[in-house]
Amino acid sequence: MSYIDIIKERARLDKKTIVLPESNDKRTLLAAAKLMEEGIADIIMVGDEEKIMDGAGWLEVDLTGVQVINPKTTDKLDDYVNLLYETRKAKGMTPEAAREILLKDYLTFGIVMVKANDADGMVAGACHSTADTLRPALQILKTAPGVKLVSAFFVMDTQFKDQGENGAFIFADCGLNQDPTAEELAAIADSSSRSFKALVGPKPVIAMLSHSTRGSAKHALVDKVVEATRIAHEQYPHLVLDGELQLDAALVPSVAKTKAPGSPVGGNANILIFPNLDAGNIGYKLVQRLGGAEAYGPMLQGIAKPVNDLSRGCSWQDIVGVVALTAVQAQLV
């Protein structure tokens, strides 16, 4: 059974309700039909029911069982307006502005549904930027207690079943924080450890990546990763973590013995923490496009309730996978 099949089975055991606000995107319609067919989650789509069903008919997919909420006609609009106003009034929100936003911005409408406990999570980003997806989530749902920053990760399901957790890895941050500080990198490592335990396996092993291993190069970029490793050991002593490590020292035991003897990672990393967004974004896409891995994300960690992003290059199958992962996250909130 593949990694994502295991996640789907976990989602079915305690079915959650997930909002898909991008109802004008054909990939979303295809994904919604498949999610209902496989019983992975209960689906809410935001938009005009006639247009959504026309799109489904054109695609020849069955959306039976999907709940469609039209902001213009729902009897909950006033409640949602008041909730958005109360949440954001300290930032200058007015009831009139809240109503206008909810009628026009389906992503914000979906987030408010999650805030109101009318849905357990939301997935968007197939036709919106990460910023557009994340902004209302942070403004309305806020960060989870004890979390220092929100970050993004991908679950990578590779063909190399002798590496990672039966071939599965977490890569972070690959979608959000452009140039994290040393302290932020340490926090991303801690959040990624918790996400790994929730979604992948019980024993996270974290590599703080660099172009240097154990001082083989001297540069401010290396210094940042060294400091991040120090902070992580100090603030999160329970983590199995080492750095700075080159990728081969993180993944290949024989290389680790030569380059980083005595490392607790020992070439067996299953979480890769990239030094910046350039490295992380390029890295995951190389593994996906040239290495044939399945990439699920960018998943967001650190928000009070599950909201996850999608790459604008995603397929409908990717959306199904991210919804399944979001549903499992929702089981753990």
Looking at this protein, list some descriptive labels:
alpha/beta; single chain; 6-stranded mixed beta sheet; about 45% helix; 2 domains; 5-stranded parallel beta sheet; globular; about 325 residues; Rossmann fold
Q: Can you give a write-up of this model?
A:
- The chain has helices spanning 3-13, 26-38, 49-59, 77-88, 95-104, 106-115, 130-141, 182-199, 220-235, 247-251, 253-259, 277-289, 316-331; strands spanning 17-20, 42-46, 67-69, 121-123, 151-157, 168-172, 206-209, 241-245, 271-273, 294-301, 307-308.
- The longest helix is centred in the middle third of the chain and has 18 residues, at 182-199.
- It has 333 residues and is α/β, with parallel strands linked by helices.
- The mean pLDDT is 93.
- Helix 6 (106-115) runs parallel beside helix 7 (130-141) and helix 8 crosses helix 9 (220-235).
- Helix content is 46%, strand content 15%.
- Strand 1, helix 2 (26-38) and strand 2 form a beta-alpha-beta unit.
- The chain folds into two domains: 3-142 and 317-331, 3-Layer(aba) Sandwich (Rossmann fold); 151-289, Rossmann fold (3-Layer(aba) Sandwich).
- The protein has 13 helices and eleven strands.
- The strands form two sheets. Strands 8-7-9-6-5-10 form a six-stranded mixed sheet, with helices on both faces.
